[in-house]
Specification:
By secondary structure, this protein is of the alpha/beta class. The protein contains 6 helices and 3 strands; from the N terminus they run βαβαααβαα. It starts with 8 loop residues before the first strand and ends in a 10-residue tail after the last helix.
Length: about 170
């Protein structure tokens, strides 16, 4: 256990990745645990997700089908053809199942970044109750979460929109 620095521990707001279409704050558990072990208060956030359009899904399905068909047709012998056929059935079945479970929503830009800004405001207003320094907040994330963190850090419009003080964001 580390002694609390004057003003509280530095704070990191972590946004998960997932191409803006999947994932949740649970994906931040590993990164946040590592950051906490090193003297930070880490808050993993979620944001509204966008759905993948049927057109995008159909395009991926067609590309996968053509690739797998080519593998089957170019198989050097009957046993590798059977293996490639089985792999094709498995991959396309897995893809069909994933298609079924992908989120369907009406969220789109700027919904994601507004949610991240609202999370920042909550953190700035309440993190001192958890030992965090509300004047030393850094945002970070992975993939789509990294994009949202960068957008929040470079365009304070979204912080002002939700009533958050941009001066509390240090990195």
């Amino acid at each position: 256990s580390m002694p609390m620095p004057e003003g509280g521990f530095p704070v990191i707001q972590y946004q998960h990745g997932g191409a803006w279409t999947f994932g949740d704050k649970g994906k931040g558990q590993g990164p946040c645990e590592n950051l906490a072990r090193n003297g930070n208060v880490c808050v993993s956030t979620s944001y509204r997700l966008s759905s993948v359009s049927n057109t995008q899904l159909e395009a991926v399905f067609i590309v996968l089908s053509v690739i797998m068909l080519c593998l089957i047709l170019t198989s050097p012998n009957m046993s590798s053809m059977v293996v490639n056929f089985a792999a094709t059935v498995f991959l396309l079945s897995a893809y069909a199942a994933a298609w079924h479970f992908l989120p369907r929503s009406t969220s789109s830009h700027p919904d994601h970044i507004i949610d991240v800004a609202r999370s920042f405001k909550w953190i700035a207003d309440h993190i001192s109750e958890y030992g965090g320094n509300d004047r030393r907040i850094t945002v970070m994330g992975h993939s789509a979460g990294g994009h949202l963190s960068s957008l929040l850090a470079t365009n304070h419009h979204y912080l002002r929109l939700v009533g958050a003080d941009p001066s509390r964001l240090i990195g």
